[in-house]
Amino acid sequence: MWLSFSLAWNFLTIIPLPFSRQSHVKPQMLAASFGWYPFVGFLLGTILVLSDRLLLSVISEPMTNMLLVTILVVLTGALHQDGLADTIDGLAGGKDSTHRLTIMRDSQIGAIGATGLILALGLRYAGLSSLPPGGREFLLLCLPALGRWSMVVGAWKVSYPRPEGGVALAFIQYISVRDVIMATMILAMGLMWALHPMKAVLLMFAMVAMIRFIVWGATRLFGGVTGDALGAVNEVTEIAFLLCAPWLVNHI
């Protein structure tokens, strides 16, 4: 359990975890770390909540929101933002699935990818600015957990498109129903505690529909799902959650 958790933590954050072993890890263990993704997300959400309390006590809310965006990006090493930008570049410049995958492998970010990334960060800021005061901390707590769970749902029962392999191959190839159930149960418990149980259930069903639609589109356009596509899924899910949060809190 410690190994699978430490793999999830070290992959999703830049914060070093003591006594964690990263060498000679079997692909099955990499996939097993998927089960801990929402838990790592809740830990990141806790950091956001504590940072929010501290920052609001000394600076304005707009500055706090900007710093919260920065904190989450820094803590995760901009992993998912990189995936989003690469995916947008591939979609914009590729003529077919092979060409799109080649563009996504390029370490250079294109103009369209950079524009999409800027817009995504702007939407994050707008979403944070619209969070209802009464539910702000609960929503901040759940935000990273929901995003990381979305990658687990997105990796379930899909194919990896690159014959030569890649970072996400082991995750996608060996993910099990146990990993999906574990991740879903962790997220569900957190959401039901933070929100009303019915809201949590409706939110998760809506997100599953959106995530699987994105995965379906990625499969058609790229021939499968890559690590960059999963990073894009995380970004889209978090932004969608932020933008619908006021309606979710006030009207359901």
Q: Which structural class is indicated by helix and strand composition?
A: mainly alpha
DSSP summary, beta strand count: 0
Percent range of helical residues: over 70%
Largest sheet descriptor: none
What proportion of the residues form beta strands (DSSP E)? under 5%
Low-confidence runs: none
**Total helix count?**
12
The SSE order reads HHHHHHHHHHHH
Radius of gyration: 18 Å
Total discrete domains:
1
Q: Can you give the mean pLDDT?
A: 91
Span between termini: 37 Å
Global shape: globular
Name its key features.
252 residues; mainly alpha; 75% helix; 12 helices
Concise account of the structure shown:
The protein is an all-alpha fold and 252 residues long. The chain is 75% helix and 0% strand.
What can you tell me about this protein's structure?
This protein has one domain (about 1-10, about 30-250). The chain is about 75% helix and about 0% strand. It is built from twelve helices and no strands. It has helices at about 1-10, 25-30, 35-55, 60-75, 80-95, 95-105, 110-130, 135-155, 170-175, 175-195, 195-220, 225-250. Helix 5 (about 80-95) crosses helix 12 and helix 8 packs antiparallel against helix 10 (about 175-195). The mean pLDDT is about 90.
